[in-house]
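User: For my dataset I need records formatted as: sequence, then structure tokens, nothing else. Please produce one.
Assistant:
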Amino acid sequence: MTKEEIIRPENLVYTKPELMNDVPMHYCPGCSHGVVHKLVAEVIAEMGMTDKTIAISPVGCAVFAYKYIDVDWQEAAHGRAPALASAVKRLWPDRLVFTYQGDGDLACIGTAETIHALNRRENITIIFINNAIYGMTGGQMAPTTLLGMKTATCPYGREVKLHGYPLKITEIAATLPGTCYVTRQAVHTVAAINKTKRAIRKAFEYSMQNKGASMVEVVSTCNSGWKMSPEKANKWMEENMFAFYPLGDMKDTGKEE
């Protein structure tokens, strides 16, 4: 098959999303962040919202998200992205506004901002990457670290007596009256990637329809922090993370309106 035949639309299997900047990624090989970036970029373009999107990235592995997706970005202090997103959406209600946050940022230092923004029914979407560890800063225990899971700050495994229980922030979000769509997905298989893309699209559409706040959690791997190969990290996630963080929609009131 010639090069010209390969690039014909009917033969095209994959292409880089038009909104993904042509820069080297800093994420570790096997990291879930790159896949989610691709999905976000595709959804924004498919919705025709390229020039009407304002995204917020805070601190952690997600801090450089602005380098990769070619839309308007604002940086937020650690944990404060939902507060900044609330202000942006109120000032520019015709914009698609979302945050992109990790579990340490969102479920630890940003717990208050997250819960109150969702409870106020801000018309924003929070994309929540949960890999149960602080990936960028050395692999410390996160609020979402599983019981028995070893990290740099709990080398013998998380214990209830010392560290408390893992925080299911997405379940909490589903109980809040201000949320319209709350879901937990993953990106470890093609089927899972397709479901996550549909979830992001639905959340973005609901926010533009002023139906309330949405949270899309993506259960993810951190093979560097977990000290595993990408393949083993995916398997460990399936066998351990999904048992405690089951996938699927938890709330969808937007379709009822």
